[in-house]
Design goal:
Elements: H1 2-13, H2 16-46, H3 51-97, H4 102-105, H5 116-160, E1 171-178, E2 186-193, E3 197-205, H6 210-227, H7 248-266, E4 273-281, E5 286-292, E6 297-301, E7 304-309, E8 327-330, E9 336-340, H8 342-345, H9 357-364, H10 372-387, E10 396-403
Antiparallel strand pairs: 1-10, 2-3, 3-4, 4-5, 5-8, 6-7, 6-9, 9-10
Length: 411
């Protein structure tokens, strides 16, 4: 096998000139050999020639044939070199230069006496490379313009997220957000509500990229508007009246109105968003929430996972008539509420294995007593150790809230 490969390499190493010359040489030699044999047989049959006469005749003919072959080979070699070999070598050198200097490689100067077939090859090649060059430059200009637009979109999207988590009594908050692409379908938000309440939301749009980013912006804005965060605390759930207090039913109305609008106006787009929208009474620690098709969130204490906040309705955008339920739970001192998107549980390792919810539960099973930032960092460190150098497969969002009643806010 090794000898066969070496033989193949030797065959590839033979140049065009050698192949052509040897082909011509053996053809001429064959033709002249046939003519010589024919001539000897003819003279032997038609003439009364001795063996010595035939021998010297064959010698003269052989010398004449050798002279003719030498002349033709020298002439053909010069012709091949000027007409074919040099143009082909120019093309080969130019092809090697393409990766270093594409522009200069488009043009090859030929001698005036080059065959028109070679000239046609060069002309066609130059036009093809020039077309590729023009298309490449156009794509580069378009790519740079697109990158600028995406960078601007990324900045605008980041502005939709809280630049700084609000400082509220009795709560300690920390967040982590890492998009898989330039634009993300994940989002989180925290905002103050009337009557000593704070609202928070974690959402995940069903895709990534520009469409998801726009869908995320729409959903986030609707949740703020319907919860009454905009307009100086005016609650739009009740037709614009200013309520004396925030009630758990306002949480439910906010999600229902958001779903009705998104499903009715954009249901045909085939996109949806899973959300967890909750409100905390900052005086009592009562958490009221609606889980619209989202991952179960966890309340963690020193003993482990205290409870999981499961789904209470479908994702937003699937059905304008969807029915949601509201649930409530009391937060005890030092309880930590861990919010996240499926970019955490579905993160891929270098061997294409999922992080899984079970691993996250195991991480929390021994309990935790640190701050919200420390818990977020612990999950992030475990996630990074699991994924290693694997590419990020999905957007990752985490929001951690620690309930600290009668304690000064600190992180």
């Amino acid at each position: 096998m090794v000898n066969l490969m070496k033989g193949n390499n030797k065959e590839k190493a033979r140049g065009v000139k050698e192949i052509l010359l040897m082909g011509v040489f053996w053809r001429i030699l064959f033709i002249e050999g046939v003519l010589l044999l024919y001539s000897l047989v003819y003279r032997w049959i038609t003439q009364d020639a001795s063996s010595m006469d035939l021998f010297w005749y064959s010698v003269r003919i052989t010398i004449l044939v050798a002279i003719i072959i030498a002349f033709m080979m020298i002439t053909l070699k010069r012709f091949l070199t000027d007409k074919i070999i040099e143009p082909l070598e120019s093309i080969a050198r130019s092809n090697k230069e393409i990766q270093n200097n594409f522009t200069n490689a488009c043009y090859i100067n030929l001698s005036k006496n080059a065959p028109h077939e070679i000239d046609n090859i060069i002309t066609t090649r130059s036009k093809m490379l020039q077309t590729i060059l023009d298309e490449t430059e156009e794509r580069i200009r378009y790519s740079k313009a697109l990158d600028r637009e995406l960078d601007m979109g990324k900045k605008i999207q980041r502005d939709f997220l809280p630049r700084q988590l609000p400082t509220v009594d009795n709560c300690c908050m920390a967040s982590y957000f890492k998009p898989a692409l330039q634009l993300s379908g994940d989002f989180y938000d925290v905002f103050e509500l009337p009557d000593h309440h704070v609202g928070f939301v974690v959402g995940d749009v069903s895709d990534k990229g520009v469409g998801s980013a726009l869908f995320m912006a729409l959903t986030r804005s609707l949740l703020r508007v319907y919860s009454g965060h905009f307009g100086g605390g005016v609650n739009l759930c009740d037709g614009g009246s200013t309520p004396p207090a925030w009630s758990p039913q306002d949480t439910l109305k906010t999600v229902s109105l958001t779903n009705a609008y998104v499903s009715g106006e954009h249901g045909d787009d085939g996109m949806f968003v899973t959300i967890f929208f909750g409100t905390i009474n900052l005086r009592t620690g009562r958490l009221s929430y609606v889980n619209g098709g989202h991952e179960p969130l966890f309340i963690i204490n020193r003993s482990g996972i205290k409870t999981a906040l499961s789904r209470t309705g479908p994702a937003i955008g699937l059905d304008p008539e969807a029915v949601y339920q509201i649930q409530s739970v009391e937060l005890d001192a030092d309880d930590l509420l861990f919010c996240y998107t499926d970019g955490v549980t579905e993160a891929l390792s270098e061997t294409n294995e999922f992080y899984t919810r079970e691993r996250l539960i195991q991480l929390f099973s021994k309990g935790f007593t640190g701050s919200s930032q420390e818990l977020t960092d612990r999950v992030k460190a475990d996630l990074n150790a699991f994924t290693g150098h694997a590419d990020q497969s999905d957007d990752i969002t985490m929001l951690t809230i620690k309930w600290l009643p009668q304690k000064e806010f600190q992180i």
